[in-house]
Design a protein that fits this description.
Length: about 375
C-alpha cells in the first residue's frame, strides 16, 4: 500500500461560499439561556460567527497545518489521511495517536513536535517518538467514506495495516482519548503482541455501547464525586449521542448545510466537556475553535463522523479472546478530573494490564489541547521503560 504526500489546500470557492452562508445565518430565538442550560448561547454564537466572517484567517491556519508532514493512502479501499513526523533522537519508537469526536487530527498539534523532538522542548532526545496522527475514517481528510461498518474496533485493524504495511513498523505504541481511547484499547486487546503499550486519557470498556459501566461501590478514596460526574454526563449530556447512534443522517443534512449550525453543535461540546469553567475561550482560542469548525465544514465530514456512533452500536464489538485482563498490552491511564467519564482505579486494574495511573487536577476531555505539556510528560514517562 503506497502513501502519497498530501497538502491541505481548501479551494477559494469553498471559503467564499462558507462566508456567504455565515452572513445569511438565520439564528434561532434564544432567551433565559445565559448559563447555556438549554444549549449553545445565542450571543456567544453570534460573536463567534462574526469573527469567523471577518477575523478568522483560514489560510494562516492552513500554513500551520501544512508545517507538518501529511500523507494519504487507501486501506481496504478506505481513504486515510495521516501526519507522520519522524523522531529526532537515538532510538525513536513509533506511536499512533487517535482522536475522537468532535475532534480532528488538529487537536494533537501542540503535542506532536514535543513528542517527536524532545530536545527542542527541553526534554531528553532518548524519549523521541516517530509520531503518526491519522484522521479517523470519515473524519477530516480521511474522506469520503462510503464503506459501512467502520467503527472503533474496525479502525484498530486499519491502524495495524497503516503502521505495518504502509509505514513498515513491526512494533508500535498507541495513544488516544474519546474514540481514540477505544481504538487504542482495542489495539491493546487484539494486537497486544505488536504494541509497546497503550496510553489513554478516557477509560471506558470496549463494551461501552452494550452497557456494563462499573458500580458505585468500586470508587475508592480520592475518587469522591467521580461516579456522580459520570452519571450526570449520561443523564444530562448525552443527547447528541442518542441522535448520532440512531439517525445520524437526519441531522447531517442540517449541519452540512449550515456552518453556524455546525458551529453551535460542536462548540457546546467544547465548552461542556473541557475544564473551562464556562469560558470556552479559556481553553481554546477562537482561532483554534474555528479551525476545527472549518475542517469539518470544508471536508463535509460531519455526517460520516456521526455515523461512527451508529456503527459502534449496529456493528458491535466482539472480543478476540476471553483472557483477563481484557486489554493485555501494558497500559497507562492519565485521568484528567474534568473528564466527562471518570472510571475507578479498581475497575481499571482489572480491565487493563495497568502499569501507570496518573491523576491530574486540571484538564478535561480534550487533553492534547487543554494540557499538552502534562500529557506529553506522562506519555514520555510511561513509555521510557518499555522501549
Amino acid at each position: 500500500m503506497a502513501q502519497e504526500p498530501f497538502t491541505v489546500a481548501i479551494p477559494d470557492e469553498t471559503l467564499r461560499d462558507l462566508k456567504e452562508r455565515l452572513k445569511r445565518t438565520r439564528f434561532a430565538p434564544d432567551f433565559a439561556n445565559d448559563g447555556w442550560q438549554y444549549g449553545t448561547n445565542l450571543d456567544y454564537l453570534k460573536r463567534l460567527v462574526e469573527y469567523w466572517i471577518d477575523g478568522y484567517d483560514w489560510r494562516r491556519a492552513e500554513r500551520e497545518i501544512n508545517s507538518f508532514h501529511h500523507y494519504t493512502t487507501r486501506i481496504e479501499g478506505i481513504p486515510i489521511h495521516f501526519i507522520h513526523e519522524p523522531g529526532k533522537g537515538p532510538r525513536p519508537i513509533p506511536i499512533i495517536m487517535s482522536h475522537g469526536w468532535p475532534w480532528t487530527f488538529y487537536d494533537f498539534h501542540k503535542v506532536i513536535r514535543p513528542l517527536a523532538d524532545p530536545a527542542a522542548f527541553g526534554g531528553d532526545p532518548a524519549d523521541a517518538f516517530d509520531v503518526v496522527v491519522p484522521s479517523l475514517p470519515g473524519y477530516g481528510f480521511s474522506t469520503p467514506l462510503t464503506t459501512t461498518g467502520i467503527n472503533y474496533w474496525r479502525t484498530a485493524d486499519l491502524w495495524v495495516a497503516l503502521m505495518r504495511d504502509v509505514l513498515g513498523y513491526k512494533k508500535f505504541a498507541a495513544q488516544g482519548g474519546d474514540w481514540g481511547a477505544l481504538v487504542s484499547a482495542q489495539l491493546g486487546h487484539k494486537y497486544a503482541e505488536l504494541l509497546y503499550g497503550v496510553h489513554i486519557h478516557l477509560m471506558v470498556p470496549l463494551t461501552a455501547f452494550l452497557g456494563g459501566m462499573p458500580d458505585r461501590s468500586l470508587y475508592g478514596p480520592g475518587e469522591e464525586g467521580w461516579y456522580q460526574r459520570t452519571a450526570t454526563f449520561f443523564t444530562e449530556g448525552s443527547g447528541y449521542s442518542a441522535i448520532q447512534l440512531t439517525r445520524p443522517q437526519t441531522i447531517a443534512f442540517a449541519l452540512n448545510d449550515s456552518p453556524a449550525g455546525l458551529c453551535s453543535w460542536i462548540v457546546e461540546k467544547r465548552r461542556a466537556w473541557s475544564d473551562c469553567g464556562g469560558d470556552v475561550e479559556s481553553r481554546f482560542t477562537r482561532d483554534e475553535l474555528l479551525t476545527t469548525m472549518t475542517l469539518y465544514w470544508a471536508t463535509q465530514s460531519y455526517g460520516t463522523s456521526a455515523r461512527y456512533y451508529y456503527e459502534a452500536i449496529h456493528n458491535p464489538w466482539k472480543p478476540s479472546h476471553d483472557r483477563q485482563p481484557v486489554v493485555e498490552a501494558p497500559t497507562a491511564a492519565a485521568v484528567f478530573t474534568k473528564e466527562i467519564i471518570l472510571m475507578p482505579r479498581r475497575w481499571a486494574e482489572g480491565y487493563y494490564n495497568l502499569k501507570r495511573w496518573t491523576v491530574f487536577n486540571s484538564g478535561g476531555h480534550f487533553a492534547p489541547m487543554e494540557e499538552p505539556a502534562k500529557l506529553v510528560e506522562d506519555i514520555r514517562a510511561f513509555f521510557r521503560p518499555l522501549r
